[in-house]
Structure formats: C-alpha cells, structure tokens
Design a protein that fits this description.
Blueprint: E1 10-13, E2 23-28, E3 31-34, E4 42-47, E5 58-69, E6 72-78, E7 81-89, E8 92-96, E9 101-104, E10 109-113, E11 118-123, E12 128-138, E13 149-153, E14 158-161, E15 164-173, E16 176-177, E17 186-193, E18 198-202, E19 208-215, E20 218-220, E21 223-225, E22 230-234, E23 239-243, E24 248-255, E25 262-265, E26 268-270, H1 273-284
Antiparallel strand pairs: 1-25, 2-22, 3-4, 4-5, 5-12, 6-11, 7-10, 7-12, 8-9, 8-11, 10-13, 14-15, 15-16, 15-17, 17-24, 18-23, 19-22, 19-24, 20-21, 20-23, 25-26
Length: 317
C-alpha cells in the first residue's frame, strides 16, 4: 500500500542533527490512518514520527492487520524512493508502469524502485485476512534520477538458532546478505521467535536501529514491545538481545544515518517544496509516470498542496 491520505502531511527529514549515536530505548507512538473511504483499511503509521522522522534511509513505516479486508489501491505515483512490501498473512497483486505484474505472499519480497518516476497499483485477489507492512526507503541523490525498476524475491536468506529465525529482507545482517538492491548501507529483517526463545542479533555500531512488533510481545534490549509503537534504539550497539515468553514476531530496521535532507509529501520524496510542486503537476498532467496495464481503475488524483511552503526542520521536533 501507499499513502492515500486526502490531506497528507509534508515532512522534512534527513541530516545528521539529533541522531542518537548512543543506545536509547525510545517508544514512538504511531498514528492511525484510514486509507481511502469508510470501509478502507486502517494502518498504524510510525514513520515519519513527530519525534524521529527517519531510521537510516527508512522514511515510512505502515503496519496493517491482521484484519479481513479487500485491498484496492488505484494507480498512483512515486518518486525518489523504494517501496518494500512484506506480508505476514494474505496475498497482494502488484502492477506497475514498467510492466510488472507480481503476486506477493508471506515471506516474499516485492521491491519497487521509483527512481525518477513510476506509478503502480495494488489489490488483494479476494477478501481475506491481510497482515503486513509497507516501508519506504529514501534514495540518495546518486540514485534518485535512475530508471524505475521492480524486483520480486520469492526466497530470502536466513539466520537460525534454536527457536529463532531471522529473515534478511534488505541489506546485510550477521554476514548474511539479501539479494535485494540497496543504494545506502541499511538492513531490514524479520525475526520470529518461538515461545521461550531468545537470541542476540549482531549489529553495527555506526547504524541507528528501530524495532516494530508484528505479533506477540518481544523483549527488545530490555524493553517489552507489542504491536503498535516503534521502538527507536539509536546507534552505538554491537548486539541486540531479543527474548519472548510467548511466540513473537518483529521487524528490525537499521542503517547509516541518512545525510541528505528530503521532503516527503503524499507519495513523493524530493529535496524541496518546489520539487514536490513539480512532481504533483507532472502526475496530474500525465507526464512521465507512465500507465499501469490491467489496473482497471482510474489513476488516483493528487491532493491539494498546503498553502504554506515547508520550512526546513531537523530529524526531531
């Protein structure tokens, strides 16, 4: 899924100011967002957060479900980012303007790199239980004008220990590297723990990290984490202890602090307000984003831009 808000917030993110270089355990409360009309899916959005807007290059985190629902997201645009789709339950069909058509199931990765411009649509084949996350990765300047692309990875590498499986979705963890394309040093991993299991996950002290519980309760570096908030962990860690009394599942995100400042609005990532204005105009005029074959729905119109241009801010308020 993507950002379907009719009155989206504009956020300035990035830069090294206020990055927590030392370990912290800071719970960041998300906000509920309804995607579309009254029967649309509800998601919990924890990035960008009012207190921490990015974790490495990760700039957007939506957690949805588990709930019985039908997903139907009409064609809409993206610029300057990668979308990372990860399911715990259900199926979602992806179509895009570079001609991709790919069904994703739990444990598989759909990775779309918008580059300079792409459009796509998503739908679930039938009403069923859906549970997953939609993540965005900000592209650095060296990659954000690249050609759009799509990757599907049906199998991903894992680390295992008694009662614990760590699936490396993006980047590298513990010497295991995902085949997914990355443009900045980062990691995204799903950790599943059986009841009573525990492990210590190796980390890079130069990365900042965060964890999101997808199910159950997991003790993360001494803090009990259940579905809802994002636990910001800061940097300076060489390992992270995870323990679960009952079965649990969480998402671990991390990366080098993203040095470039970005502006996010609706489904666009740019570098300033004027660039966002241009992206919106080009989308509304049908310029450069292509069409999505087989989508069966009209493209989604962009919301109105705010009247006041964005004022630059740091990573934290």
């Amino acid at each position: 899924m993507s950002n379907l808000e009719t009155d989206p917030r504009e956020s300035a993110c990035g830069g090294l100011a206020d990055v927590a270089a030392e370990p912290v355990n800071e719970l960041l409360t998300g906000r509920d967002v309804v995607l579309g009309g009254p029967r649309a899916m509800r998601v919990t959005r924890t990035l960008p957060n009012r207190d921490v807007r990015m974790v490495g290059a990760w700039c957007f985190v939506d957690h949805y479900g588990p709930e019985r629902a039908t997903m139907h997201v009409p064609p809409h645009p993206h610029t300057g980012l990668q979308t990372v789709s990860w399911l715990v339950e259900g199926e979602v069909l992806h179509r895009d303007s570079v001609g991709s058509e790919q069904l994703i199931r739990p444990g598989q990765l759909n990775l779309m790199t918008a580059g300079r411009a792409i459009s796509h649509a998503e739908e679930s084949p039938a009403e069923a239980v859906l549970h997953g996350v939609q993540l965005w990765v900000a592209l650095p300047s060296a990659a954000r004008e690249s050609a759009p692309a799509f990757e599907h990875h049906p199998a991903l590498p894992t680390l295992t220990s008694p009662g614990v499986t760590v699936t490396v979705i993006m980047g590298e963890l513990g010497g295991v590297t995902s085949p997914a394309t990355v443009h900045t040093p980062l990691v995204g991993a799903e950790v599943t723990l059986e009841a009573g299991a525990g492990t210590s996950v190796p980390l890079r002290p130069g990365f900042e990290y965060a964890a999101l519980a997808l199910s159950g309760t997991v003790r993360v570096g001494g803090t009990d984490l259940s579905p809802g908030p994002l636990l910001y962990l800061g940097g300076g860690r060489s390992e992270l202890t995870l323990e679960a009394e009952g079965a649990g599942r969480l998402l671990l995100l991390g990366g080098e602090p993203f040095e470039e400042r970005i502006v996010m609005w609706w489904n666009f990532v740019g570098r300033d307000h004027e660039e966002i204005v241009r992206f919106r105009r080009e989308w509304m005029e049908g310029d450069g984003f292509g069409t999505v074959p087989g989508a069966g729905a009209a493209p989604l119109p962009a919301p109105e831009l705010p009247l006041t241009p964005l004022k630059a801010r740091g990573r934290r308020r």
